[in-house]
């Protein structure tokens, strides 16, 4: 009987010792993370039940909310095993202001990332555009967290009428920033190598036409007759004096180039097949390069000929 009571006492004592040891340890942890308005904790700590003293957790704002500048978004498990209390740091905010082609958000407003309802951002006209009125475009963060439409108060600048090339004409729709004008050479003239058109673009902080290509006389050719009849005769009349042939070389060229290309393709296919059988799976064919190296110079030579 006495030894039974003693054993019982020992069990009680044991439980007490365990409690004494465990309770302070339990008291040394913070409980689950508090809910904060407009904010959520990181996914990996959301469901955690206890956190050691000193733990810092940074919240993020939920959709439609953004962090208010200069307010802290990090709570800490304090010495007294309680989470620190933060003033509200997430508030309703629009996303970044809308992008438009004719203007960009002013540098001052661009760097913000908190746009409260009612906030207005200003825009400045993009290069190539200028303000059409005294006002600059603005946009306001509306109650439903969308931005008001940006009024198109910047208009494209004009390059003015471009110079007309000698021995050619310009095909153009307007003279505004971004426009393109094609240069067409008169019969018997051809464009210098380079782009066959000009564009109204930014040049030294203002808009200007890109350099005008020139039309120069095709060598050894009289401006007449019209090119289409020349092409027709070129195909049928093979033996002709060299001087006449040069005017027609652009019609003969395809006759040379096409067999060249077919030749390259045939060689390429043959190479792929052969190499493919020899080392299956490892060979990466690059037939165009190989073909160009072999055939290129001879084609090139005739093109730039007399
Ligand atoms: C464009 O803005 C400038 C400066 O803000 C102003 O001086 C100018 O008059 C404006 N242009 C037009 C066409 O209103
Ligand atoms: C937001 O509100 C503005 C004006 O109040 C309205 O024109 C617009 O359609 C609304 N947008 C959405 C997505 O509800």
UniProtKB/TrEMBL annotation:
CDD domains: CCP. Keywords: Disulfide bond, Membrane, Repeat, Signal, Sushi, Transmembrane, Transmembrane helix. Residues 1-28 form the signal peptide. The keyword ATP-binding does not apply. InterPro entries: SEZ6_CSMD_C4BPB_Regulators, Sushi/SCR/CCP_sf, Sushi_SCR_CCP_dom. Residues 283-306 are annotated as: Disordered. SUPFAM superfamilies: Complement control module/SCR domain (SSF57535). Residues 92-156, 157-217 form the Sushi domain. The chain crosses the membrane at residues 251-272. This is Complement decay-accelerating factor.
């Amino acid at each position: 009987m006495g030894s039974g009571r003693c054993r019982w006492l020992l069990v009680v004592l044991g439980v007490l010792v365990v409690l004494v040891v465990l309770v302070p340890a339990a008291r040394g942890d913070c409980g689950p993370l508090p809910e904060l308005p407009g904010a959520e904790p990181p996914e990996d700590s959301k469901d955690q039940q206890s956190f050691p003293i000193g733990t810092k957790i940074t919240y993020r704002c939920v959709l439609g909310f953004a962090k208010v500048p200069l307010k802290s978004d990090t709570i800490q498990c304090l010495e007294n095993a309680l989470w620190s209390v933060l003033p509200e740091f997430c508030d309703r905010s629009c996303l970044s202001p809308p992008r438009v082609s004719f203007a960009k958000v002013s540098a001052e407003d661009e760097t913000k990332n908190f746009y409260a309802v009612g906030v207005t951002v200003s825009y400045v006209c993009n290069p190539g555009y200028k303000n059409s009125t005294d006002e600059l475009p603005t946009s306001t963060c509306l109650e439903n967290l969308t931005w008001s439409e940006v009024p198109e108060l910047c208009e494209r600048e004009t390059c003015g009428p471009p110079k007309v090339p000698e021995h050619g004409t310009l095909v153009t729709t307007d003279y505004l920033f971004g426009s393109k004008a094609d240069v067409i050479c008169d019969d018997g003239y051809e464009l210098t190598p380079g782009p066959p058109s000009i564009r109204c673009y930014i040049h030294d902080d203002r808009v200007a036409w890109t350099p005008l290509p020139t039309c120069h006389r095709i060598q050894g050719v009289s401006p007449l007759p019209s090119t289409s009849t020349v092409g027709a005769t070129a195909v049928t009349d093979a033996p002709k004096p060299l001087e006449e042939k040069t005017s027609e070389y652009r019609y003969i060229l395809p006759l040379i180039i096409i067999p060249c290309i077919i030749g390259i393709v045939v060689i390429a296919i043959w190479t792929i097949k052969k190499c493919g059988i020899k080392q299956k799976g490892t060979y990466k064919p690059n037939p165009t390069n190989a073909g160009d190296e072999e055939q290129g110079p001879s084609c090139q030579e005739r093109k730039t000929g007399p």
